[in-house]
Each structure stands twice: as C-alpha cells, then as structure tokens.
Amino acid sequence: MAGVGALIVVAGVVWLALAGAPTATPSPEPTPSPSVSLDMRAEAQAALEEHLEECTALGAPNGAVPAGCGIRLPWGAEFASVTDVRFRIERLPELTLSDDGGFTADGGVLIATVTGIGQDGAARTETYRTESWGVRGEVESSDDGVAVTVW
C-alpha cells in the first residue's frame, strides 16, 4: 500500500507543476470611472445658461431663429410671414453631463411671442409656450474654464 500512497503523492506533485500558478479572470463588470465633478457640472450649467440667454436676447428678426439654441417654432401654419419673435425664458434647461464629453439639458420652459402677417393677410401676434425646451451638445474643459457647444 505504501507504493500506492507514493504514487498518489507523485501524481499530485506532477499535477500541481503542470497546472501552473492560478490566474485571475477578468470581471464582466466595467471598471468604474471617476464621476464628473460637481464643479465641472456647475461651470457647464453656467456656460449653457449664458449661451441660451444670448440666444434669446435678440429675438428672431424676420423669423430667423438663432441656430444652436434648441428653438423650434410652429408658426408656419398660422403665419404667412414673420416680422419678429420675442423670447422669454421661464426656466432654463437642467444640464446632465455624460462620460463621453457630451451633455443633455432638458426641462426648460420657453415663451415665444411671434408677430407677423397671418395666413389671412391680417396682422397677427401669437404666443407659443414649450415646457420641454432642451438642447444637447458637448463640453470642453481647459485652463480658461468650461465651454459648451450646442448642436
């Protein structure tokens, strides 16, 4: 029986030698990335608010809505032509940063008062309200601060 015991011990040693060192298997969970700092989000929100206030400050002479402001007006069905649009911000969109350098901003409330000539040829003024004003774009951080680009 001692020969069988020795054989089992030798087999165990050979098996351990051939098996090698244990290896770690990668986790299917993604490696956590650091969250975007609150300061970065606050700076991006401030930059976005400044941009949107500039967008709306001059209105839209002749119906030319400024680009990169997330403003769409459904005036085509009621107006033959538009001479002016005045905007009033009731609530600015709230910005959320994404891990890829982009952002979305939703939940804004925008009032637009449109003046022009109605489809019937008479002077007309209408007020439009959206409670779902939103924009998206990208955020860049540099030594000079945070800049937002709205698509």
Can you offer a commentary on this structure?
With 151 residues, the protein is of the alpha+beta class. The chain has a domain at 59-151. The chain is built from two helices and five strands. The protein has helices at residues 2-19, 38-57, and strands at 79-91, 94-97, 102-118, 123-142, 145-150. Strands 1, 2, 3, 4 and 5 form a five-stranded antiparallel beta sheet that branches. The N and C termini lie far apart (82 Å). Residues 9-13 have low confidence and may be disordered.
Mean of all residue-level pLDDT scores:
85
What best-fitting shape do the alpha-carbon axes yield?
A: elongated
Q: Give the helix proportion (percent range).
A: 25-40%
Number of helices: 2
Short structural summary:
The protein is an alpha+beta fold and 151 residues long. The chain has a domain of 93 residues.
What topology does this entry show?
Blueprint: H1 2-19, H2 38-57, E1 79-91, E2 94-97, E3 102-118, E4 123-142, E5 145-150
Antiparallel strand pairs: 1-3, 2-3, 3-4, 4-5
